[in-house]
Amino acid sequence: MNGKVDLVLINPGDRKQVYQDLGKELTAIEPPFWITVIAAYLRNNGFNIRIIDANAENISPEEASLKVCEIDPLLVAVIVYGSQPSASTQNMTIAGKICTAIKAKTLTKVAIGGLHPSALPQRTLEEENVDFVIEGEGLFTLESLLGALNSSNKDYSIIPGLWFFDNGNIKNSARAPLITDLDKMLPIAAWDLLPMEIYRAHNWHCFDDINDRVPYGAIYTSLGCPYSCMFCCINTPFGKPGIRYRSPELVVEEIGLLVNKYGIKNIKIVDELFVLNEKHYMKIVDLIIQKGYHLNMWAYARVDTIKFENMQKMKKAGINWLGLGIESASTVIRDGANKQMKRKDILEVVRRIQSVGIRVNANYIFGLPDDTHDTMRKTLDMAMELNSEWANFYCAMAYPGSELYGIAIKEGWKLPKEWHGFSQHSYEMLPLPTKHITAKEVLQFRDDAFHKYFENPSYLAMVEKKFGMQVKEHIQKMTKTRLKRKLLENYFN
After folding, report:
1. Measured between alpha carbons, how far is 253 from 193 in angstroms, rounded to an integer?
2. From residue 52, how far is each of 7, 93, 127, 455 by CA, in Å?
3. Is 158 helix (H, G, I), strand (E, B) or coil?
4. What is the rounded CA–CA span in Å between residue 397 and residue 405?
5. Fewest CB atoms within 10 Å of the CB: 127, 366, 418, 420?
6. In CATH, which superfamily holds the domain spanning 7-172?
7. Terminal Cα-to-Cα distance of the chain (whole angstroms)
8. What is the DSSP letter of 60?
9. Can you list the alpha helix ranges (DSSP code H) found in 186-310?
10. 288-336 pLDDT, tens per residue?
11. Helical pair 343-355 and 373-386, crossing angle rounded to 10 deg
């Protein structure tokens, strides 16, 4: 490895813009696993890599650019990824500002990649102050691009998954092939390049010990999802639905590093759908139990992928929370979003999960295309009946890369003017209308639903019983923060 830094990877973020006042203490600060695993792969192949986590450090674009100047790398890559569908697009505003600030101070080449740039590569190249746009997963692209920049041959056309300007004309190559050997290409992440003391878990993740949210880890055990929900864009970097796995042995080795070197017990399993392939996830569970780690983990599942015979072992391994995508109480609405489950099945699954001591984080969406006031009310009624330990309420958004985005463009639906308007919690947030109600009505319903749920006496009583008075008071303090919404400022006038 030479002394010159080949690549600085930047994780962009603006917690104030994306989360408003919720970003101060309620939201998580998640380590950027994807960036960190890219760094590890490239470092293993002889490149000198640094990471600037502008989101975790909460630094300005100007401060990020000064750090780049000090390092003086061959290439900067701003990776706008995120581990849930909205997390990439909502950070494009700040990512663009970071790129512009770097270009103003240095001659270093700047690339941008991630989920959103993969969804809209040409538009991203046209709109942002960058030299390159990376389409796809990015590892092969960055490896080839660094090789070209380190040589006298600057033929960018042979680099897979790259968009660039050539004498003022936009050029691009075919996407790189998908990673097949995940253990090789996604090795144990370069955690030593991150400010590990900064990361913190979600408030709800630590309800059993609300004062112990730091430190925090987040890892992938797989890439992609085999499903095609119309509101989701998570498969955009991969070009198609599907799922590929890291080996359980490597995953548990990495968990061991987080535990033993960094003292981490709070861990998010970032996979879009962890509880799917029983052979894979239960091998991880068994290995964790063998190691005797004391963990507080959470992961995503679907109501129809839960196997109750596995629940007690999962709890023993430290999987204390499962995130379930319930979306809507209406089978018509859910079927329209490619989710086919019955209400009674949902209730039964939630109760059986809770019966072994695993908590449920239920996710709901208001404003799917067929939603009406009545169907949204039924969804809220179901949420309050389930009374899960946590609930997320979202508005349907046309995220670039999703089927809904294509529909929105075709139908001429109004979309946010700025990319951070795709954040569920931002001031400028603009959801989709449905066939029956306006975007304003959807947003007003969502914000009211949040407060009705978390201020509900039945919910607060359950929280106090399970987690104690301190968590109940934490929730009551949380609900005193009402999100400001530009769309709703004149709603009642």
Report:
1. 18
2. 11, 17, 23, 39
3. helix
4. 8
5. 127
6. Cobalamin-binding domain (3.40.50.280)
7. 64
8. -
9. 248-262, 278-291
10. 999 999 999 999 999 999 999 999 999 999 999 999 999 887 766 654 4
11. 20
Q: Give the closest residue to 297 by CA, choosing from 316, 310, 282.
A: 316
**DSSP class of 177:** P
Non-local CB neighbours of 226 within 8 Å, separated by 6+ positions: 241, 242, 243, 273, 276
Cα 390 to Cα 454: distance, rounded to the nearest angstrom: 9
Are 323 and 302 contacting, i.e. CB atoms less than 8 angstroms apart? no
Question: Per-residue pLDDT tens for 401-446?
Answer: 999 999 999 999 999 999 999 999 999 999 999 999 999 999 999 9
How is residue 489 written in tokens?
């400022």
3-state helix, strand, coil in the chain (%, to 5): 45, 15, 40
Q: How many helices and strands (H and E) does the chain possess? A: 19, 15
The structural domains of the chain, with segments of one domain joined by +, span: 7-172
Tokens standing for 347? Answer: 């209730």
The residue count for the chain? 493
User: CA 280 to CA 119: how far, in whole Å?
Assistant: 29
Task: Give, for 320, the enclosing helix (H) or strand (E).
Answer: strand 319-327
pTM here? 0.95
Which is nearest to 75 in space by CA: 167, 168, 166, 138?
138
* One-letter amino acid of 468: G
Distance CA 93, CA 87 (A): 12
Residue given tokens 């796809």 in the structure block: 136
Burial class of 10 by CB neighbour count within 10 A (0 to 12, 13 to 18, 19+): buried
How far apart, in whole angstroms, are the C-alpha atoms of residue 366 and residue 445? 8
